Give the backbone structure.
Amino acid sequence: MMNKAPVTMVKRTNIDLQIISKPNIVIKATAKTISDAKETFDYCLDSKGLSYFMDCEPIWNSIITLKSKEIKSRLVTEITTKNVRDSNLNMKYSDVFHSDKIKGNFLIVDRTKYLCFIMDESQLTGQQLVRQLFSTQLKPFVDSQQYLFDNLCNHSIPAKEKIREIGRGINGDFVDIIRTSSEIHKIAVELIDSSTYEILMLFSTTNSFYRAEYSGMLNSVWEASQRGVNVKMLIQGNKEDNKLKEIVQRVIYQRNLPVNIQYIAKPLEAKISTLVIDQAISLAIEISDDSKMTFEDSTGIAIYSNSESKMSSSLTIFETLWIQSEIDIQNKVKQAYFQMFKGFELRDEFYTRRWSFEQQRAKKDKPVQ
């Protein structure tokens, strides 16, 4: 019996439509099309498509490089509890939006190149997930698909809003008072481990930062930063404090942690350290005895909540202190600048010169030598 004819791997039609069915060529063609982007890159992926793009190294690497080339990138997908972290990772390189019940997978490069992926329903993962890829640069067709994508993007919600919604939906609305220090520490670490795009940490005393380091809490922060979570820390203390600088250098700089740190020079009235995760859940920890060395001995009660009012309050306090810290830095720079010129005894001098009508006319009529 004769074998069946082989499946066509690459086919071109008379309307500039290319159809590819060989997996390795699909990957190469997709990665090259993305890498060739000059201005824009838009892509719409359902759950399978998102998983395929994230698992396929050549395609994912081509997306990563777009940011360094300052190419505007947008992704519309359906964000669920299962793909929150993948969505968060895409947020590092693209503007990500959520839309319910996304079906289909396609991308548009520079508003001129269109690629559509036909997924194999029998495959869950791996390169065989794509059964066929077809691409075209036919302008009327690409323009219509671009219009549909823009419309879909405009009616979608930002990924951060959906991630906050998922965080609140999983846990329900709650305000809990935690009284045991071991349980507080456990919740803090679990929250950091569950973070998807942002961690805000306010250490209301210098010692509270030391204790977070000694208790191993900052190890979880390091792991979170490695998976792309944005971390911002506010530490009460003098930036010139040698001990503080030594700890920060060891914990943050030697590990190359992508962490933004600001210092609060003035002591805070309330000795409460705060942790805010993804702008959805907060943990406010009371410091009962700041002289104690360990987290367990120094901690009082904690308020663990995802209520809108608690979250807004925590965010407002953090942002206000962050802005104040930046103002303090600017003032220090100004003071240092003035100190540099203090010994020169500079004085303000004003120079004016008045021209009479005759002088101006004489100057104008004076022949060129």
